[in-house]
Amino acid sequence: ENLYYIKGWGEPYFSINAAGHITVSPQGDLGVSLDLYELVQSLKKRNISFPLLIRFSDILADRLARLNASFDRAIARYNYPNKYQGVYPIKCNQHRHIVETIVNYSKSYQFGLEAGSKPELMIALATLDPSLIAPNYAPIIICNGYKDPAYIKTAILATQLGYKPIIVIEQLEELFLTLEISKQLGIEPSLGVRAKLSTKGSGRWGNSTGDRAKFGLTIPEILTVVEYLKSEENLHYLQLLHFHIGSQIASISVIKDAIREASQIYIQLAKVNPNMQYLDVGGGLGVDYDGSKTNFYASKNYNMQNYANDIVAEVKESCEAANIEAPILISESGRAIAAHHSVLIFDVLNTNDVCTTPPEFIAENDNLIIRNLWQTYESIDVKNYQETYHDAIQFKEEAISLFNFGYLSLAERAKAEQLYWACCQKILEITRHQDYVPDDLEDLEKTMASIYYINLSVFQSAPDSWAIDQLFPIMPIHRLDEEPTQRAILADLTCDSDGKIDQFIDLRDVKSVLELHRLKTLESGHHETQSKGKKIKNETKMAEPYYLGMFLVGAYQEIMGNLHNLFGDINVIHISMSTKGYEIEHLVKGDTIKEVLSYVQYDAEALLESMRQRTEKALQDHRLTLEESQQLLQDYEENLNHYTYLVSDQEKSKS
Ligand code: PLP
Fold first, then answer.
1. Region at 347 (left for phi over 0; alpha for psi -120 to 50; beta for the rest)
2. Test site for ligand 1: of 92, 171, 552, 559, most ligand atoms within 8 A of the Cβ
3. What is the distance between the alpha carbons of residues 547 and 455, in angstroms, rounded to a whole number?
4. End-to-end CA distance of the chain
5. From the CA of 248, how far away is ligand 1's center (Å)?
6. Ligand 1: which of 117, 335, 468, 552 to mutate, most ligand atoms within 8 Å of CB?
7. Could you tell me which residue ranges the Arginine decarboxylase helical bundle domain spans (predicted)?
8. What are the structural domains of the chain?
9. Is 424 among the residues known to form the active site?
10. 333: Cβ below 6 Å to ligand 1?
11. Deepest of 78, 115, 198, 199, by most Cβ within 10 A of its Cβ?
């Protein structure tokens, strides 16, 4: 439990049960729990292949409830004279079932949606139904991002359907365009301005604010908006002030600074325009990915309640001091709502370890360099391990030079390398028991790590891990009652050396290896194949499936994933809980090979036809038998309809 810090990042949704499996409690502290490993077993029986993304709708509901409850508590505690009305930023995870689930669960909170583009606006309009929420209530749609005339026109017209679209001016041109279109339509728009705060964000997404941020208006530009609207006698259109200082804000002090600055801008705007009524604090509410509760970029040093308290208290105090009516508070929290609800499950295909067993014996007439390495190996102890490490490196390098000049045979070089790795292993064992690891030995753990090959594409399923070194908690979902003996890095299916995970969460910093279990070999079996009419007996060793989970992946990962090496979308299931247990609400099948090929303009029929012609030619040239050519064509055709990830022969025959 302590090894993977599950208490820190997993509570109240993920824990470890007595069977050594992960338990999921989608409804938080209350409600029914399920055994994740048993769920995986039952999904296998339903022929659902891995990798697989499991979405828990109830976790989404719980996150929404917690966010609203945090603001409600803060409003009550500080006697805030207005309300909170959050919006879900669709960009965070646009998948239909997710947006629909959020809209469905958030009706009672009068939650709205945020659109960052025209397609997202179209999702917002089709998903939110004003008639279903509350009488005389117009659900808020915050319209952010770049806008063309069509975006603005659709947003303004939607007012007539009962929505409250607020067009947030991020660039001055958008103001002029909006006013022109609203004049043409004869409909008054609701406007907001996005301010570029001088408060600096922090962490990976910290440059969303500041003077040279991509979006938003500087203070002189905001004044231009006010002056222009005033001159057109339309200042009452302006109702909202928005800012966004970046996602995953790790430090509460950054949030406090931003709110302080934004409150003052709001007050100044409200002084000249009594129609101001919303303060939209954007996204940024962080997720504790490593469980450390610190201001490290993968964590955050505050909780949801602290976040709500600080916003509510600061705005109340500032408005009271300035004698301005407190605004409706809006937040655009995406990550904090969506991250927890998705778990990525994948299997380990095989492993590769550095061979650290020394040669059985060293002869007196072995090359001097080998004898030196042997002596080094024999002499390693707690007092000299740092020095002997450098000796071993030097002797190994000398051995390679000797080999390159033709003075060592292949067998001798092999012996030298074997001895070198044996030295490293012995030294590593010593460092593991020291309080302090010298700088020059810091990388040894990583160098000696086992490689676990995983049935996954990091580029498709955890793109932030590859692109910006984002950390996600990763751990086995079973065998947690057994000591993990291996220290490993993970290598994915792509043939790209970046397709790996070699940074893992740690309470103090980042770990370069993950503690995992050795794969268990099941009974080896025999099967027969035919080659050139002869029967051949093959021995196969099967490993017991070993499943890992990557957690907190519900925000941003799926849509940013790419098709590197043509590994496509993975299978997704949606689970919802009832008093009787769980139910699979939806299964969204991942891409087949045929589908990913079509994304890059290959037509399956045309591919099959060219294969058919090629096998015909080979038949004529007697390079294939008729049976072999038929087998090849049949396999090719079947593969077109298969999952793009590795599927065992057993699964193939079942599906
Ligand atoms: N609002 C805007 C304008 C954004 O750009 C983003 C994403 O970065 C969000 C809201 C969502 O932020 P988060 O997921 O950190 O809550």
1. beta
2. 92
3. 10
4. 36
5. 9
6. 335
7. 364-445
8. 1-77+340-349+448-590 (2.40.37.10), 78-331 (3.20.20.10), 368-438 (1.20.58.930), 607-654 (no CATH)
9. no
10. yes
11. 115
233 Rama sector, left if φ>0, alpha if ψ -120 to 50, beta otherwise: left
Whether omega before 274 lies within 30 degrees of 0, making that bond cis, reads: no
- Nearest Cα to Cα of residue 374 among 383, 385, 363: 363
Could you identify the residue written with the tokens 């995986």? 40
Cα–Cα distance between 318 and 329 in angstroms, integer? 14
- Rounded Cα–Cα distance for residues 228 and 217 (Å): 14
Residue nearest to atom 6 of ligand 1 (CA): 283
- Class of residue 650 by CB neighbours under 10 A (exposed 0-12, middle 13-18, buried 19+): exposed
pLDDT in tens, 549-572: 999 999 999 999 999 999 999 999
d(CA 655, CA 362): 54
Residues 595-606, buried b or exposed e (16+ Cβ, 10 A)?
bbbeeeeeebee
* 89 Cβ below 6 A of ligand 1: yes
Rg (CA), the chain: 30
Instruction: Give the model confidence (pLDDT) of 496-538 as tens digits.
Output: 999 999 999 999 889 999 999 999 987 666 666 666 566 666 6
3-state DSSP assignment of residue 581: strand
Q: Which CA distances in Å does 133 have to 121, 591, 614?
A: 19, 36, 61
- DSSP 8-state secondary structure symbol assigned to residue 592: B
The DSSP secondary structure of 435-480, one letter per residue, reads: SS--GGGTTHHHHT-EEEEESS-HHHH-HHHHHS-----EEESS-T
Give the amino acid at 133: I
Q: Is 286 in the pocket of ligand 1 (CB under 6 A)?
A: no
The band of 364, judged by pLDDT with boundaries at 50, 70 and 90, is: confident
Contacts of residue 630, Cβ cutoff 8 Å, sequence gap at least 6:
none
- Rounded Cα gap, residues 27 and 4, in angstroms: 22
Instruction: Tell me the sheet residues that pair with 87.
Output: 112
Q: Is the CB of 569 under 6 A from ligand 1?
A: no
Q: How buried is residue 437: exposed, middle or buried, by Cβ count under 10 Å (0-12/13-18/19+)?
A: middle
Per-residue b or e along 25-48, where b marks 16 or more CB atoms closer than 10 Å to that residue's CB: bbbbeeeebbbbbebbeebbeeeb
**Which H or E run contains 68?**
helix 57-77
Which residues lie below 8 Å from residue 391, measured CB to CB, with a gap of 6+?
A: 372, 376
pLDDT for residue 339 is more than 50: yes
